[in-house]
Amino acid sequence: MSGTLDNFTIVIFGASSDLASRKLFPSIFQLARWGHMPESFRLIGVGRQEQSHEEFRAFVRSRLLEHSPEAAGDAARLDAFCLRLFYARVDLDDPASYEVLRDEIMREEKVGGSTCRNLMFYLSIPPSLAPAVVRNLGKAGLGGREQSCTGWRKLIAEKPYGHDLESARELNRVINEVFEENQVYRIDHYLGKEPVQNIMVFRFSNGIFEPLWNRQYIAQVQITIAEDFGIRDRGAYYEESGLLRDIIQNHGLQLLTAIAMEPPVDLSADSIRDEKAKVLRSVRHFTPDSVRESVVIGQYEGYRNEKNVAPDSKVETFAAVKFHVDNWRWSGVPFYMKAGKNLAKRVTEIVITFRCPPQNYYGPSGGAACCTPNQVVLGIQPDETVAIRFGAKRPGEQMITDPVFMKFDYRDTFQGEGLTPYHRLLLDAIEGNQMNFIRKDSVEYSWEIIDSLKNSIDGQVPEQYPVHSWGPESSRIYG
After folding, report:
1. Do 21 and 129 share a structural domain?
2. Last residue of a domain, one of 112, 133, 158
3. I need a surface site. Which of 105, 194, 370, 459 has the fewest CB within 10 A?
4. CA distances to 143, 250, 473 from 423, in Å
5. Distance between terminal CA atoms of the chain?
6. What is residue 109's predicted lDDT score, i.e. its pLDDT?
7. Start and end of every Glucose-6-phosphate dehydrogenase NAD-binding domain (predicted)?
8. Per residue in 312-322, pLDDT tens?
9. What is the pLDDT of residues 96-141, one digit of tens each?
10. Position 186 in a domain
């Protein structure tokens, strides 16, 4: 933690949500336990049901005991944490209901000798509810542009940010009527993962890689985001979104920007986000003609039997997409992206494949044989690794090479308890660091790309693929 933090109140809309139970409450508890929270912070949970402060504290305590192993072994800190919890019943669509929240926030209650006036709002709610909540915060005088209130204001919004370009622009417009852009933190938990944050460090702090990081030396980039489970209880959501909107629009394109961005002017949030936005502006849009050779969509067998899924659904649960970044550095280099549900295993990784040397001296037939290309493999999850594949001489009389790997593993190299993505991103938001949050222009650029893709495949029937396979057979050409 940099410096001493001012006391503040964090308000969580959707306090009974699965995200709050599994991620937010445990992360905030751990930050407090590690000394990363101010002494007199407050947490106000917001929900529709009637509930007292004590009932809410009991609910959070039960969630912490279930999802945070450290809570059970630290009763004193758990008790102290629960005393910082409060509850406000709010009808999210009713502006008058927000007076209850305002009263709870602004009541002259001294907490540890200090009244909290700095406010952080966390929207752990369905995206369709976000515009009404933001508007009503403004009407209640709780927005970031409100001049009558002292202290700072911050808004954290979970993905998805809209359903398409039009809805994203409307959501951005509503948010910016109530909050300044420098008060808005659009969260994508992938950007809080250590291996993702390491991509920029790997590129720009190592002289042996960045000079080769361009079309002259790199043949292709492959990004894989594979999950070994289905949609679980998200049938209604998936019928509206599909995998392209759920994963590729955010996680996938954010990984692409990290690989393809130019060196920033400095490490300020906007300098880094400027370069990421430039990449998204450079991604070639899709047409009905181009998708025939650039896109394969699939649906796992049994998807149509899932709860809240139409029996004739054409929603994709798998996609393999070839992107092109039309700029000086990357012209002609394909970026292959494969993502899906119910695939063979859970893995997220990025493979950068380099071009072979002009002559291969060491193959079985001398120069006639093609070499095995060098690769850099960035493991994001579950393994957090960096591996480099290169050729080495096979022991023996002949001069023949075999591909070998050098591998760095985060867990083996760096001992001790690290920060999870939500620990990291919550701490960044508290400290006012927007580097790992998505700016509104990038949201809109990414939706322009996905809208062009969705419109170009409109009506296309996804190919069926077996559960726990690697997707449709026709996607094999994408790696």
Report:
1. yes
2. 158
3. 459
4. 25, 20, 39
5. 42
6. 47
7. 11-198
8. 999 999 999 99
9. 999 999 999 887 544 444 445 899 999 999 888 999 999 999 999 9
10. no
CB 467 within 8 A of CB 343: no
Give the pLDDT score at 108: 52
CATH of the domain at 443: 3.30.360.10
Can you read off the two tokens belonging to residue 432?
């006012």
Do you find a cis peptide bond into 160, omega within 30 degrees of 0?
yes
Residues 306 and 407 in one domain: yes
Q: Is 193 annotated as a binding residue?
A: yes
> Closest by alpha carbon to 44, among 31, 33, 28, 63?
28
Q: Calculate the CA dihedral of residues 124, 126, 127, 132 and round it to 10 degrees.
A: -90
Angle at 248 between CA 247 and CA 253, to 5 degrees: 125
Question: Does the annotation flag 341 for ligand binding?
Answer: yes
What integer is the mean pLDDT of 415-434? 90
Q: Please indicate whether residue 251 is annotated as part of the active site.
A: yes
Token representation of residue 30: 């751990």
Q: Return d(Cα 240, Cα 411) in angstroms, integer.
A: 38
Total structural domains within the chain:
2
CA distance 75 to 62: 13
Report the candidate in 189, 111, 118 with the shortest Cα–Cα distance to residue 424: 189
> Binding site annotation covers 246?
yes
Q: Which of 251, 285, 423, 468 does the annotation list as catalytic?
A: 251
110 is in an annotated binding site: no
pLDDT tens digit sequence for 3-53: 567 789 999 999 999 999 999 999 999 999 999 999 889 999 999 999 999
One domain for residues 258 and 328:
yes
Query: What tokens appear for 140 in the block?
Result: 């209640």
pTM more than 0.85: yes
CB neighbour class for 124 (10 Å; exposed up to 12, middle 13-18, buried from 19)? buried
Same domain? 469 vs 328: yes
**For 317, phi and psi rounded to 5 degrees?**
-115, 5
Find out whether 85 is annotated in a ligand binding site: no
Among 137, 158, 179, the domain-final residue is: 158
Bridging pattern class, strands 318-324 and 295-300 = antiparallel
CA atoms within 13 A on the CB side of 284: 18
Residue 256: which H helix or E strand, with range? helix 253-260
Asked whether residue 285 falls in the same domain as residue 387, the answer is: yes
Q: Determine the structural domain holding residue 312 and report its residue range.
A: 191-478
CB 147 within 8 A of CB 233: no
Only one residue has tokens 């515009």, namely: 131
Residue 392 lies in a domain: yes
Q: Yes or no: say if 478 and 338 are a contact pair by the CB < 8 Å rule.
A: yes
Task: From residue 80, give the alpha-carbon distance in Å to each of 31, 40, 42, 67, 85.
Answer: 13, 11, 11, 18, 10
